What we know:
CATH class of the largest domain: Alpha Beta
CATH topology of the largest domain: Rossmann fold
Number of domains: 2
Structural class: alpha/beta
Amino acid sequence: MDETKLNELIGKAVAEMSVAESAPLIYLGDKLGLYRAMAGAGPLTSQDLADRTGTRERYVREWLNNQAAGGIVDYHAGDGTYELSDESAHLWADESSPVFLAGQVEVIGAMWADADRLADAFRSGDGVDWGDHDHRLYPGVQRFYGALYRGSLVQEWIPALDGIETKLREGARVADVGCGYGISTVLLAEAFPRSTFVGFDAHPESIAAAEKAAADAGVSDRVRFEIADAASFGGSGYDLICFFDALHDMGDPVSAAAHSRSALAEDGTVMLVEPAAGDRVEDNLNPVGRTYYAGSTFLCTPSALAQPGGHSLGAQAGPQRLGEVLADAGFTHRRTAMATPFNLVLEARP
């Protein structure tokens, strides 16, 4: 027994459990509006925060102490007040921030709720359909990825594609495959009012939410949504077909990519956005990779295994495997247009 290694592992385990037990408190802080009430308010007592949020001081005090112990809020010992810094508010209170993280904690809540279901799937090898997860998964995914997309999609990813920004400004036909709650579709429609957009998803509840999002954003005149899977969605002559963090969830990604190829205009482009990953396991043994492997175990792999096709790329497929899927689907031009700490953006053309 290596006592030094044992003690190091004990220290890591205590830190892990501290974070794990605190995640539900972050969820409560988001759900109850505690972070939003603290944002920009300066130092507050626990009673001040309880009054602002219609909650009970004794619960709020304990919550604040947990948040202070984790460094999310600052504690001022001199007067016993608590403060949410502008930087911390950027992560937990501002849903328009590109680094807003509270949505991911909502996803974590759904994962915990589904843990017994996943244990059964481990034993049987069966998949778990995307629509069969805990209800918190879907808004959580929309809120987490919405932050990433708001900060990068129009500003960085679209300009990284050859000639696409110009086409969109002039007026292009766009399909968003696996659109979920429609955040990506709506963002594109807001930025490029001369283009038309259609979002496809096999999950009816997500399509209903996407239609509402488009109506709320005032872009329903150029956006529509349909219930359809990736291998059979309708339409042709698309100038751009997008897969936002969706292809790796599909049981037959080659067929999905091949169908997109057949639906493209002659000079059309497929934009594939996937979680950041290297091609080797050892490339992904880091906090971002760990997070994506967790999501892949609970969500992406079970979803793919629940579908016909026999494929299960997982959320850490990496550019080589993704490139092979695109090549098998008949794309002769393939390149990594951009790589960020959280995403890969691949471009494919026939």
